[in-house]
Amino acid sequence: MKDLLSIASRFDIQGTIGNIKSLGSGLINDTYKVTTVEETAPDYVLQRINHTIFQNVDMLQANIKAVTEHIRKKLEEKGETDIDRKVLNFIPNTDDGKTYWYDGENYWRVMVFIPDAKTFETVNPEYSYYAGQAFGNFQAMLSDIPTTLGETIPDFHNMEFRLRQLREAVEADAAGRVGEVRNILDEIESRADTMCKAERLHREGKLPKRVCHCDTKVNNMMFDEKGNVLCVIDLDTVMPNFIFSDYGDFLRTGANTGLEDDPNLENVNFNMEIFKAFTKGYLESARSFLLPAEIENLPYAAALFPYMQCVRFLADYINGDTYYKIKYPEHNLVRTKAQFKLLQSVEEHTPQMQEFIESEIK
Ligand code: GN1
Ligand code: MG
Questions:
Q1: What's the gap in Å between 108 CA and the centre of ligand 2?
Q2: Distance (Å, rounded) from C-alpha 274 to C-alpha 353?
Q3: How far is residue 36's CA from residue 91's CA, in Å, rounded to a whole number?
Q4: Model confidence over 77-109: pLDDT tens digits?
Q5: Which residue of 28, 121, 216, 233 sits with most ligand 1 atoms within 8 Å of its CB, as the best mutation to test the pocket?
Q6: For ligand 1, is residue 217 a contact (CB within 6 Å)?
Q7: What does the buried/exposed string (b/e) look like for 37-48 if buried means 16 or more CB atoms within 10 Å of the residue's CB?
Q8: Which atom of ligand 1 is nearest to the CA of 50?
């Protein structure tokens, strides 16, 4: 790999680079903070795009450009202030002006670092309420984007497809691990039909696709000093999908009382306070465009994402850990079990969730 300093220098950045340090906790791309020496120059974020996963980098960056430009325009129309902290700004490279650069081996991109902003791995109910509003607004702002966005990862949140991948992994048993995961495979299969409801509703013409973020992990939001949401980051997977993706993936991460990869399953439960606050915020900003079939199925969405993540982590474990970054050999199995425990807790809370949603939309 070429050294980071010479890579960052291929982009049209202001100021002199002081240092470059690793940043964030994403499981796919590698992210660095580029700090400049001058007070007047911004700092930057440098990312190596995982192009085994995002195979069409040109489409990826074109999507992101369309999305950020559209959001910027919306914010300007609304007369918002501090817009540079509310939407990401990608820097062109100095060779051909594209917002990425290929070094012959890897693809890189640079964006302006948003100053005085924070991300969190866990949130309280108040922040979840703001997050709910923010994702509703994000979907509302993108509802009239004139560009047709490409699917950067085809069938990314298609549950039928994810189950097919798991079944293929089981069939191949490349790492010889299927024997030890039979129980959890049975649990997954027993829910398979129920969990593919979204694709069925879509085929029946009852459930639309809308432009969604599709990676609404809680740590993909930037908050300012006061806890207001500035913007949503990590735009690689913005594409047309069911709104369940954004709603469900936030709760999967934000309403988990434990960690995504908690080795102690007693820590992992579904937090109804977070659920209520987030749902309230989300319905406030999205209710005007949501269809009854979307609202009714929000509890299903809360279960779908721990389930889907369980399927994806388990498939990766069975395949011998080819997709997600891992820190130890059993990591994907530990993640699978934690997501399964979360799913069970969500299932226990389903009647309460339904009750809450009904009372909110009265
Ligand atoms: C990945 O890149 P990151 O860490 O924000 C993954 C998501 C998963 C998530 C699980 C492109 O997100 O779909 O939900 O890990 N992104 C991709 O933590 O697969
Ligand atoms: Mg991320």
A1: 16
A2: 11
A3: 15
A4: 999 999 999 999 999 999 999 999 999 999 999
A5: 28
A6: yes
A7: eeeeebbbbbbb
A8: 11
Ligand 1 nearest atom to the CA of residue 29, by list position: 2
The rounded distance, in Å, linking the Cα atoms of 98 and 308 is 34
Sign of the torsion formed by the C-alpha atoms of 176, 182, 183 and 185: positive
Q: What percent of the chain has pLDDT over 70?
A: 99
State whether the beta carbon of 306 lies less than 6 angstroms from ligand 1: no
Atom of ligand 1 nearest to the CA of 217: 5
Return the percent helix, strand and coil in the chain, to nearest 5: 50, 15, 35
Cα–Cα distance measured from residue 313 to residue 324, given in angstroms and rounded to the nearest whole number: 8
Q: Report whether pLDDT(336) > 80.
A: yes
Phi/psi of residue 215, each to 5°? -155, 55
Say whether pTM exceeds 0.70.
yes
The per-residue DSSP string of 80-109 comes to: -S-GGGTS--BPPBTTT--S-EE-SS-EEE
Checking if the pLDDT of 199 tops 50, the result is: yes
